[in-house]
Design goal:
Elements (H helix, E strand, L loop, with lengths): L1 E5 L5 H10 L3 E6 L1 H10 L1 E5 L2 E5 L3 E4 L11 E4 L6 H8 L8 E4 L5 H10 L6 E10 L5 E13 L7 H12 L10 H22 L3 H5 L7 H15 L6 H11 L9 H7 L6 H15 L4 H20 L4
Parallel strand pairs: 1-2, 1-6, 2-5, 3-9, 6-7
Antiparallel strand pairs: 3-4, 8-9
EC number: 1.1.1.169
Family: Belongs to the ketopantoate reductase family.
Function: Catalyzes the NADPH-dependent reduction of ketopantoate into pantoic acid.
Length: about 325
């Protein structure tokens, strides 16, 4: 299978490296600066007492033309802040038979992908990894988790989904095909907005928030709002998943923060509209009150306006 990974960051780079190590034909579509760094030092995944290195990853940069394409599978591993540029960069590499599997959180990207490539090209996906891109450009693996759920958005289990699942699992990636991938995407969205709101609103780690008087009540309150939106949209969150989310945001001493928090505190652009703006807009349309999520959205929008005004944050 010919695979194009768009982006070589903490998520796309991690999955792409695993696929390449398993013998798959993998190319990374990256920006020129990232391409130069990867050509000089290779693509490295470090941590957990292991180091994986692709000394000479196959690379292509935007504007070079559809080198090696069209591809059978595209893994779209960029953040929402880079989505518009990525769609333009990606277009020459997508053919009539290409399956596009996005790794973004939220749902708004599905409409953008469908408008650009057609509904038939776009799968649903839910990625779960614990990785960061460190100061050296290496992907640092903080836990062994490598989970990528996928599926057709109409719930059918198509031949292409079966083939992609096999390829992923042969690379050591847990690749379930849930009964409804859209429901799975909603549930991940509830988790990531709860996690992001708790830490970003309070500007602290999970443990710092939880261990402060009044802190233990925040996580359950935010989760209740996000889960209410999902339920009103027809995707109620099962009790076991709610409990798992609460366990993450209610851990004394936990140093955990999401990537949104790291972007916020580093003065970078965040996925505020994709994750929070879209969710709160859906809440209004569904008649679900979300005062804490509204507050988190406002907080992040103020930050984003400052970023936009100064032209910084990339």
């Amino acid at each position: 299978m010919k695979i194009l990974v768009v982006g070589a960051g903490a998520t796309g780079g991690y999955f792409g490296t695993m696929l390449a190590r398993s013998g798959q034909d993998v190319t990374f579509l990256v920006r020129p600066a990232r391409a130069a760094a990867l050509r000089a030092g290779g693509l490295r995944v470090v941590g957990r007492d292991e180091e994986w290195v692709l000394d000479a990853p196959r690379l292509v940069t935007a504007g070079e033309g559809p080198s090696g394409g069209p591809y059978d599978l595209v893994l779209l591993g960029v953040k929402a802040t880079a989505l518009d540029a990525a769609l333009t960069d990606l277009a020459p590499f997508v053919g009539p038979g290409t399956a596009v599997l996005p790794l973004l959180n939220g749902l708004a990207h599905l409409d953008a992908l469908e408008a650009r490539f057609g509904a038939g090209a776009v799968l649903g996906g839910v990625a779960k990894v614990v990785t960061v891109l460190d100061d050296t450009g290496a992907i640092r693996r903080l836990a062994p988790l490598a989970h990528l759920a996928l599926g057709e958005r109409d719930g059918t289990v198509s031949p292409r989904v079966k083939e992609i699942r096999t390829v992923l699992e042969e690379a050591g990636i847990d690749a379930p095909v849930p009964a409804s991938i859209v429901t799975a995407m909603w549930h991940k969205w509830v988790f990531i907005t709860t996690f992001g709101a708790v830490t970003s609103l309070m500007r602290g780690t999970v443990g710092e928030v939880y261990d402060t008087p009044g802190g233990p009540e925040l996580g359950p309150a935010v989760l209740a709002e996000a889960a209410a939106v999902a339920a009103a949209a027809g995707h109620p969150v099962p009790e076991e998943e709610r409990a798992a989310t609460l366990a993450v945001v209610s851990a004394s001493g936990s140093p955990m923060v999401p990537s949104l928090y790291r972007d916020l505190t580093a003065g970078r652009a965040t996925e505020v509209e994709h994750l929070f703006g879209d969710l709160t807009a859906r809440a209004r349309a569904l008649g679900v009150p979300t005062p804490l999520l509204d507050l988190a959205t406002l907080h992040l929008r103020v930050h984003q306006r400052r970023i936009d005004a100064t032209g910084s944050g990339q």
